[in-house]
Amino acid sequence: MAIGIPATASAANGGGLLLTKDDVPGLHAAGKGPKVARAALGVRRAPARLRHATARGAAFAGAGFAVVTGTEILLPLIAGIFVIEVMSLIIQVVSFKRTRRRVFLMAPIHHHFEMKAWSETKIMVRFWVVCAIFCASGFALFYRDFLQFVQG
Questions:
Q1: Which residues, including other chains, have CB under 8 Å from residue 60's CB and lie 6 or more apart?
Q2: Alpha-carbon span 29 to 135, nearest angstrom
Q3: What residue spans define the domains of the chain?
Q4: If I label 37, which of 9, 18, 127, 151 is the partner at 20 to 30 A Cα–Cα?
Q5: What distance in Å separates the CA atoms of residue 142 and residue 125, rounded to the nearest whole number?
């Protein structure tokens, strides 16, 4: 039985790639190495070609990893940008149902910035920076707790 590793790659191969454990040792020789590396690092050309199923799978994998390592409390901090996206959508819907007015021009919040005439690249880079800040703070809190655990 082959264990599949799903990865989103370039559009040249239909936007997706499925590797089995037999392919892994010869990835570079088979010419798949660069595609897998780009997919793993999240390097994609504009416009984004990430499928919702891929993002959903990554979210479930991150949540599963947090449960296994006992870091569920840090998950909202590490996944801060996604929490902001979901909260903007919730705020928009609740506000519109109660007051018939919108808080954002469009929800989720990245569409609000698009409506404000920000370029997709500008939004993406700003979200990367915010995501890096959230991840760094989550790692710092985890490391602080880890050091207290190790020392005593």
A1: none
A2: 34
A3: 1-50, 71-152
A4: 127
A5: 25
Over residues 9-68, the pLDDT tens digits come to 434 444 444 444 444 444 444 455 565 555 555 555 566 555 556 667 777 888 888 888
- Does the predicted model carry a pTM greater than 0.70? no
Rounded Cα distance between 123 and 113, Å, is: 7
Looking at residue 97, its amino acid is K
